[in-house]
Amino acid sequence: MSDPILETLRREIDRVDRELIACIARRLTLSAEIGARKQATSESVYQPQRAAAVQENYVRLGTALGLRGEFMQDVFRAIHAESCKIQRDRLNRL
Ligand SMILES: O=C(O)C(=O)C[C@]1(C(=O)O)C=C[C@@H](O)C=C1
């Protein structure tokens, strides 16, 4: 027998996931644009200071909402790795 409350919660999760994925895609599009700027100015893809500052933001904003700092670091690492890959792939296509 299906549980209507469970079904409602799952639909809500699917809706939130769509938003989350759209936000990730938007962020990676911005990263590709940054990659193009770096290419024009011969800057490195990996920017340790900026990456550390962004990671701190993830942990600060996440923990303020009750999320674990370690989880936020994992999320940042995954997104940052893809962001750097997109910028490097672009360079390698040239
Ligand atoms: O700010 C930049 O320079 C970016 O390219 C963005 C970004 C990120 O995705 O957060 C990616 C690579 C850098 O190491 C730092 C940050």
UniProtKB/TrEMBL annotation:
Transmembrane segments: none annotated. GO terms for biological process: chorismate metabolic process; salicylic acid biosynthetic process. GO terms for molecular function: chorismate mutase activity. PROSITE patterns: CHORISMATE_MUT_2. Keywords: Isomerase. SUPFAM superfamilies: Chorismate mutase II (SSF48600). It comes from the Bacteria. InterPro entries: Chorismate_II_sf, Chorismate_mutase-related, CM_dom_sf, CM_II_prokaryot. It holds the Pfam family CM_2. Gene3D superfamilies: Chorismate mutase. Residues 1-91 form the Chorismate mutase domain. This is Chorismate mutase.
